Sequence to fold (468 residues):
Amino acid sequence: MIPLSLEAVASAVGGRLCDVPDPSALMTAPAVVDSRTVEPGGLFAALPGEHTDGHAFAANAVKAGAVAVLAARPVGVPAVVVDDVLDALAALARTVLAEVPEATVIGLTGSAGKTSTKDLIAQVLPELGPTIATVKSFNGEIGMPLAVTHLDQGVRYIVLEMGARGIGHITHLTRIAPPSVGLVLNVGTAHVGEFGGREQIAQAKGELVEALPTAGLAILNADDPLVAAMASRTSARVLTFGVDNDADVRALAVTVDASGRASFTLAAAGTKARVALSLHGVHHVSNALAAAAVAIGLGADVEKTAAALSRAVLVASGRMEVTDRPDGIRIINDAFNANPDSMKAAFTALTAMKDDRRTIAVLGEMKELGADGGEEHRQVGRLVATAGIDVLIAVGGDDARAMAEAAQQDNPQLKVVGADDRNHALTLARDLIQPGDIVLVKGSHSVELEHTAVRLAQPDTMAGDRGL
Fold:
């Protein structure tokens, strides 16, 4: 963290000090929006939450070590009072970033795979210099500025996820942290209900490459036509990656082992090197290529990049997180979120692991699909019917029922049951699983199946175990 006096913080965000006995007191730790995670010397940003207002936790934050609170009103403890806390947080991020002009900002976006790719980049780029990245999947107007406040003078690369819920959102984020490198992974159907269609999603995602300077670098997925077309929207140098199409950074001779882990030959800049991923799922090949393209585009050695990818491990939970229980049951926790594209990728990974084992899919509803949601769920049901899955537990309301009905119609031999919520899903799965089974748990974040997956991964979750 770049040390800033409270007086300097107030100046940067256009605020005033209130109840601050010493304006020279230093902010020496990152900003947070959860008072439970504050570090000594940090700044607590009091934002309104889903169920409560952050201002109610101001005193607790200071008691826990916060040097002050970024607040919209006086809170009875040291505070920097501003008109809008969110706008002030963005201004603070811009100020911190300006203190480290040597740092290269790498922005990435896409409909799927952002967090996994971000974590891969963060494990590859240290070959070139000290690197930090967005925490977890905090990729919006709150999380991204918080990530920037982790900068210190030694950092040379900062990797920032940039998510969007509509046109103009990524442009806003690039004004907070102007990128030198922009990576677009894919244009899928996630959040299509909010955007109105894939073309609109492409328009929004392409804002990242439009923000790049002429001396910058755009990394584009040659396998996705909507992404490849973004080359015309930037004046920066373009570097492509891909498996199915000719690209600057390619994967050759892709293989998948019995645990769903992919290996491939990384080919770039006239050099080839073998990569053996520890991550489960062949879809991670594309993510790994994207990470390699970023590193190689910034000057990394191809062979060292391949070695770093082979050493890379899963960082974020709930994304193809595999647990092998002592009783032989394998739990695949892919429950952080879901959309039609990631569902298909999960089924492909499950098929690769299946061998002769019985498979159970605990699938929650996919949200933010708009008017096409019912049909998208029916299409996923049809995929279940042909994916070699033996048991489907469909979790949720009308959309889950649509998925279950389509799966049953296309495969009458498939055992299909419905669950109302995460607790019901756990009860059903607990009663159905047998030693040796493979269980995939996946659904949109709001369905909360990550709780079910974590519970199922514990070795005592068999018949007779009750509740979460």
